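Protocol step 4 of 6: record predicted structures for both targets in the notebook before any analysis. Target 1:
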Amino acid sequence: MDYQELLRKRKIYLSGRTSIPELTLQSFEQAFEIEYTHNSTAIEGNTLTLMETKVLLEDGISIGGKRLREIYELVNHQNAYRYVKDCIAREQKLDEAVVKDIHALLMKNIFVGGIYRNVDVYISGAQHTPPSPLEMYRQIKIFYGDLAWKGRELNAIELAAWSHAEFVRIHPFPDGNGRTSRLIMNYQLMENGFPAVSIAKENRLAYFNTLEAYAVEGDLSPFAEMIAELVDQQLDRYLGMLEQSQAQEMKQEL
């Protein structure tokens, strides 16, 4: 994916975003929030469908026959995503405190979040084994230090991909690392003027394979390319709305 082309589209997106009718933009972003919450939790095994997620989060109707934990996962993810957007609006830099807050929101009513693990963990089906607690503490501190300067050697898409891949490789929390890392990635994208993206649950295998390539071989490029393509698709959706809005304005003027 050509990064310069993404920058060109980003420029149009940032300058034209306010020209999209408010109702159109609001409904699109609300639909994205539901889709993103559904995908990010479904990747981790949540069984609620997209429609059930919509009914729960938009209409406030509880879903019968589902475990309480699954309900909390969806509500918590929506709140954590909104917290991320609020942080960006306040120009809050991504740091350890913010990451711990994100995790605490994701785990609300499930277990006390924002606390690093003190036991070994294993990822089923993966070649990579996350570091033991003492080594994990050392690596997570390096991770936060690296956040400050990685942007000098990586472009914004690579930085977002690296933040996700490196965080999930370290696996600092007992649970919820995947959801946290996807929110961290979108934090980096939005902070740099790109729209947030959602990794479809149907692409779970390819997604895990690209993360494994980074964790085992140190190769970030497959995952960065996947994220670049998702950003491109999301930018195209916004630009499509912008074109439609401009076309309607021209019709009204004629």
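Target 2:
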Amino acid sequence: MTQKLLLIILDGVPYRNFRRLFGNLEGWVESGEARVWKHRAVLPSISASCYASIHTGVSPQVHGCTGNDNVFRLSQPDIFSQLRNAGGVTGAVGHSFWSEFFHRHPFDPLQDLEFDDPDSKTINHGRFHTMTGYGRDNQMTPSDVDLFATLTSLCLRNELNYGLLHTCTLDSMGHRFFHDCIEMDHACAVMDEMLAPFIPKWLQMGYEVIVTADHGQDERGHHGGRSALQQDTALYYFGAAEGPDADTCIEQLQIAPTILKRLGAEIPETMQADPFLR
């Protein structure tokens, strides 16, 4: 496998905040170096359920994760396992839920915070964090620039074909402050500024890059249900593939088969949605 792609998930960013507050991402769209579409989350539009659907390409009603308190090792084929079957090298930097879904459950901090396993059937190189103690007044989130740097380091040292990065910072702040406020305006701008220097680096390293979120948040800082603010986010694509018209809404179940197609791996029968890139 020679193709390479990175999926960057900024947890909990509604479509309107991506489009009005991420000036660097929007600048690349304006210059023609990136494309952007609306991306609609599955139901329930809750974090763990969305993580599972993004990587398995099946709905929560199929994979069974009904929310953040129902996390377990998933049984469906997923992006990591399909890429490993095709000979690809995979890596992930993110919340421990990702490790529990696609590596091992339950999460063992002594073994699973950091691991390198060339023979793994799913994730070869993992760097995870738990956010233990998370609450309204103490987010327990790592610095996002550290996470971006960690992913870059894994790419350089291990020649990843596929890398996932997931950060909870904006979701956590959105639950505390809600998204229509000065604090969130600033937080989104800071995230955009911290992410921006890494995108040219990743492109120079030969990666296609997708930047999106798992879901949005509404005017009360809530998500999980059915509304545009809760379900709709943006998806930015940096790469040479052709995509749909700008007014197309990408369904979350399309992400997994799209990534497998771009990387030349087999799309399993369980992934029924059509890839959105060609």
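Step 5 preliminary note on target 2. The chain has a mean pLDDT of 97. Residues 135 and 172 are 8 Å apart (CA to CA).
Proceed to step 6 after PI sign-off.
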